[in-house]
Amino acid sequence: MTHFSTPATKPQGFVHFVGAGPGAVQHLTLGALRAIQGADVILYDRLIGPEILALAPKNAAAIEVGKTGFGTSTPQAVINALLVSHARTGAQVVRMKAGDSGIFGRLDEEIEALEAASLPFAILPGLTAATVAAATIGQSLTKRGRNASVRFLTGHDVAGYAEQDWRSLAKAGQVAAIYMGKKSARFLQGRLLMHGANPQTAITLVENISRADQQIIASNLERLAEDILALTGPAVLLYGLKPRQAQQALAQVPIMAEVRA
Amino acid sequence: MTHFSTPATKPQGFVHFVGAGPGAVQHLTLGALRAIQGADVILYDRLIGPEILALAPKNAAAIEVGKTGFGTSTPQAVINALLVSHARTGAQVVRMKAGDSGIFGRLDEEIEALEAASLPFAILPGLTAATVAAATIGQSLTKRGRNASVRFLTGHDVAGYAEQDWRSLAKAGQVAAIYMGKKSARFLQGRLLMHGANPQTAITLVENISRADQQIIASNLERLAEDILALTGPAVLLYGLKPRQAQQALAQVPIMAEVRA
Predict the structure, then answer these.
(1) Which of A65, A157, B34, B93 is buried most, with the most CB atoms less than 10 Å from its CB?
(2) What is the CATH classification number for the domain harbouring A144?
(3) Which one of A67, A110, A140, A174 would you mutate to disrupt binding with B, by most B Cβ within 10 Å of its Cβ?
């Protein structure tokens, strides 16, 4: 905490970047809960649900700064300006993102804005979609004898559809979690088949992970472009994995509604 | 919950696979906390710290089933047998692993033992080392314009040193988290350099993540084999990332000692 741009008599503002996990309160960390409970201002993404927002103090200001995969809604520059202006008032600011801020969370642009303004921050990691989705279908992302690495990749980036190392992904036994893959499903399918992937390679689509409207579709590379049309919400694609036993794996510890007490 | 191998009059045992995160209590999820608080028996890895074990009920049996990267200690078959025998008594069993069970956690072997015994289970995901390490050094694992994918890989697997797709890892802008990379550091270094990686590629070593004895070393590919000798505890190697501003990034929400109350 060595950065001060305001006189020492003014309270020091602080920004906690909080990864809130994919949705359910049970996936929030204790550190994230503590930060939310101590917040004066919360800037949150569209995907953060009401159960998590309800954990904030009643007098905290909660501001949605929606941002979707294909980027309508709040411009990044506006989010940056909000972070800086609120922290400058001395507020404890929570910048809450779905999943983990460090994985396809556009964290750096916001940190750079704080650094430019000499404002202090900390990052509280959260559960990313891939981790929760794999647990939900009863599978591991890595497995001895099958895959010694797992990749998290995005279906699109600033340049459009994201090019990946298709040749190595097309090999047998590879596992990858594909984020923002809905609109690029046909592209992904084409690239992987072109590089020799087995059309029967399992792909599990997990939509609205850990939410009441969660949907799991056991698909494969050949059927991907069709099966993905059934999805309307945010989803992660687990390439190389199929659900172990859907019903059993879906059994979870009951979601807690009263952690606040 | 459709699997019963015992008469319906006997209480139904259940196994929660709990990813406990890398060490600090603040990185535990609320779901994990709830499972721990409801446990009759806890089977835990060597890396689980006393602060987390202290969250269990006083009358719960806590059994260490230590397992290190290079595999001395409790054989897998013994762990499997303990899981099955405790669950068969009707106990709520927590199988607690450091990090996330689904990432280099050898989860599948234990699940298969439960399936063979028709015992029910659920997986509660946890924060894996890579996610927490990146947050700790103030960096993102993915960044627009730099990398559209991130890899988690292991330095060794059943066959010895793990072969990876070195050619694509050697390209500029790649980011990977390397688990169990201490003993294989010289091998990794050799492979990456042989495939054309820049010797100045940043590698940050994060040891004992989130624990009191955490150590962060900003290294690079050229110095890796030497710098790694300074480590004695479990570590993750962040390939392609350097600490943003060590002091600032290290500022975290205070670790909570009293979540039990």
Answers:
(1) B93
(2) 3.30.950.10
(3) A140
Nearest residue to B147 (alpha-carbon basis) of B68, B105, B202: B202
User: CB B253 to CB A35 under 8 A?
Assistant: yes
The pTM assigned to this predicted structure is 0.90
Q: Which residues of A are catalytic?
A: 45, 67
pLDDT, position A108: 94
**Tens of pLDDT, residues A18-38:** 999 999 999 999 999 999 999
CA distance B168 to A176: 15
Chain A environment of B142 (Cβ under 8 Å)? 102-105, 152, 154
Give the nearest chain B residue to A37 (CA atoms).
Answer: B253
Size of interface A-B (CB pairs under 8 A): 228
Q: Cβ distance A215 to A114 under 8 Å?
A: no
Of A111, A158, A248, the CB nearest to B145: A158
Nearest CA distance, B227 vs chain A (angstrom):
24
Long-range contacts, stretch B74-82, CB < 8 angstroms, 24+ apart? B76/B106, B76/B109, B76/B110, B79/B43, B79/B110, B80/B109, B80/B110, B80/B113, B81/B113, B82/B43
- Is A192 found in the same domain as A238? yes
| The last residue of a domain, from among B66, B90, B124 | B124
The boundaries of the domain holding residue B118 are 14-124
* CB-CB neighbors (< 8 A) of A29 in chain B: 21, 26-30, 127
If you measure CA to CA, which chain B residue comes closest to A3?
A: B248
> Of A26, A138, A256, which is closest to B123 when you measure between CB atoms?
A138
Shared-domain flag, residues B86 and B145: no
B26-79 pLDDT, tens digit each: 999 999 999 999 999 999 998 898 999 999 999 999 999 976 544 557 899 999
Mean per-residue pLDDT, A219-244: 95
Same domain, B67 and B146: no
What pLDDT does B67 receive? 61
Burial of A257 (0-12, 13-18, 19+ CB in 10 A): exposed
**Which residues on neighbouring strands pair with residue A239, listed in sequence order?**
A176, A203
Contact across the interface for A141 and B244, Cβ inside 8 Å: no
Q: Which of A200, A204, A210, A198 is nearest to A242 (CA)?
A: A204
pLDDT of residue A162: 81
Give the pLDDT confidence of A108-150 residue by residue, as tens digits.
999 999 999 999 999 999 999 999 999 999 999 999 889 999 9
C-alpha separations of B46 from A52, B20, B32 in Å: 33, 12, 18
Q: Do B142 and A104 touch (CB under 8 A)?
A: yes
Q: Do B142 and A35 touch (CB under 8 A)?
A: no
Residues B163 and B229 placed together within one structural domain of the fold: yes
